[in-house]
Design brief:
This is Peptidase M16. It comes from Flavobacterium pokkalii. Strand 12 and strand 13 form a beta hairpin. The chain is built from 16 helices and 13 strands. By secondary structure, the chain is α+β, with helices and mostly antiparallel strands. It has 2 domains: about 200 residues, Cytochrome Bc1 Complex, Chain A, domain 1; about 210 residues, Cytochrome Bc1 Complex, Chain A, domain 1, CATH 3.30.830. It starts with about 20 loop residues before the first strand and ends in a 6-residue tail after the last strand. About 40% of the residues are buried.
Length: about 450
């Protein structure tokens, strides 16, 4: 067919997604319950979520993670062995953390599954023996990652972006673990695993009028506590772009992160433009960062950007691990691509591709029980409009090139970003100094230090 006769295929109609609305009720203790009946398959899922605001743990950092590892590991109402045997017999899946509990099973086992879920979540059996085991595991993990560039980077990036005293900037060390007692774990559970911040989403082959009295019976005695939520000042971004360097002499690659903090709620009008902008910058294989650092230059196995959103302060982190000898060049290319998303309109092809990717993933997930539960929870927790997910596709399709560039300028704060590099200073510092970007030095625990002396 001659080239002049070829036509771009016309886009079809957007898919129609039917997202079921939950039936809801609230217990006297504050637990909010959402039930979505779906009788297509004989399955049911239960998702209990505790919407706990971030909290600092101070010199006992790790107590919440230990609580997470211990909860569900036995109950005062049933032995650990009998509990696990019953779950296996029913073919159910069950998991717990310090902020959630999840279970799924055949609907004929729905009642017993919810009972066991309530036993594990509301009557945990914390023991010194199990605590000692979990402490030992965490300490072993810390020691095994002592010289890991990626582990050091993960710790230092958050500590510098949020501050070491902020809940999102704290990190676990051996000393903080050694400070934690069994009483600390129990207190952590009693303080934060509370019904007034809890949501229970039930989706599947159940009837509302049958499950409601069971929930009231199993969760009605869960005691409400007084709120002790602490607010923390938002972290401040740096006044000017700078490099924060951590010297790891054994590093064979440099871990580079460009990071800044901000607030972005899911109900903000620029939520979707920001998500699309992040995807185009570093969310997919064909993103700016990946096509530059991996495909054009061959410096890395991948480059990406991860954006946060929600009620609390969050950050965007653009990152890659590159060869030592191109660390300075990679920094230049990071800056170039972030400037590009802030100053140049994206192509029609890139914008439509990003939209299609999000819509495709949404359509594939929309009717899955776990997604229905998540949408119901998000609507409540993030205070979203009731039609947020019904309008999801329409809202994404409405994002324009101008919206993307405006969002990138608002949230991708290049001039106020930290370029955090964990690598072998002896090999990369001389070239980095030629970039004329101020360099500040830190140890692997985010403490400021003098510039290392390289022999």
């Amino acid at each position: 067919m001659p080239a002049q006769d070829r036509k771009q295929p016309t886009a079809g109609k957007p898919p129609v997604v039917n997202i079921k609305k939950p039936q809801t009720f609230t217990l006297a203790n504050g637990l909010k319950v959402m039930v979505v009946e779906n009788h297509k398959l004989p399955k049911v899922t239960f998702n209990l979520t505790i919407d706990t605001p971030p909290f600092a743990e101070g010199d006992k950092k790790g107590v919440d993670e230990l609580c997470s590892n211990l909860i569900g590991n036995g109950s005062t109402k049933i032995s650990k062995e009998d509990f696990n045997e019953e779950v296996d017999f029913m073919g159910a899946n069950m998991s717990f953390s310090s902020g959630s509990a999840h279970a799924s099973a055949l609907s004929k086992f729905a009642k017993r599954t919810l009972e066991l879920l309530s036993y594990g979540a509301l009557a945990p059996n914390f023991t010194q023996e199990e605590l000692d085991k979990e402490k030992a595991k965490l300490i072993e993990g810390l020691r095994s990652q002592e010289k890991s560039v990626s582990a050091i980077a993960g710790r230092v990036v958050n500590a510098l972006a949020y501050g070491k005293n902020h809940p999102l900037g704290e990190f676990i060390i051996e000393n903080s673990l050694s400070n934690i007692t069994l009483e600390d774990v129990i207190k952590n559970y009693q303080t934060h695993f509370v019904p007034q911040n809890a949501y229970l989403a039930i989706v599947g082959d159940i009837k509302f009028e049958e499950i409601k009295p069971l929930v009231e019976q199993l969760f009605g005695s869960w005691k409400k506590t007084s709120n002790n939520d602490i607010t923390y000042p938002d972290p401040k971004n740096v006044a000017n772009i700078q490099i924060n360097f951590v010297d790891v002499p054994n590093a064979v690659q440099s871990d580079i992160s460009v990071v800044n903090s901000y607030r972005l709620k899911m109900n903000d009008k620029d939520f979707f433009p920001t998500v699309i902008a992040s995807y185009i910058l570093g969310g997919g294989f064909n993103s700016y960062l990946n096509m530059n650092l991996r495909e054009a230059h061959g410096w890395t196995y991948g480059a990406s950007s991860n954006i946060g959103a929600g009620k609390h302060v969050t950050s965007i982190r653009s990152t890659s691990a590159v060869k030592n000898n191109v660390t300075d060049s990679a920094v230049v290319e990071f800056i170039k691509e972030i400037k590009k998303i802030r100053t140049e309109k994206v192509t029609t092809e890139a914008l439509e591709s990003a939209k299609a990717g999000y819509i495709g993933r949404f359509v594939m997930k929309a009717e899955k029980p776990e997604s229905v539960a998540r949408y119901a929870l998000n609507t409540e927790i993030e205070e979203l409009p009731a039609d947020f997910y019904e309008n999801y596709i329409k809202t994404i399709n409405a994002v324009t090139k101008e919206d993307v560039i405006a969002a990138a300028n608002k949230y991708f704060l290049l001039d106020n970003s930290r370029i955090i590099i964990v690598g072998k200073g002896k090999e990369v510092i001389p070239a980095l100094e030629k970039l004329n970007i101020p360099i500040f030095y830190f140890d692997k625990y985010a403490n400021p230090v003098d510039k290392p002396v390289f022999e």
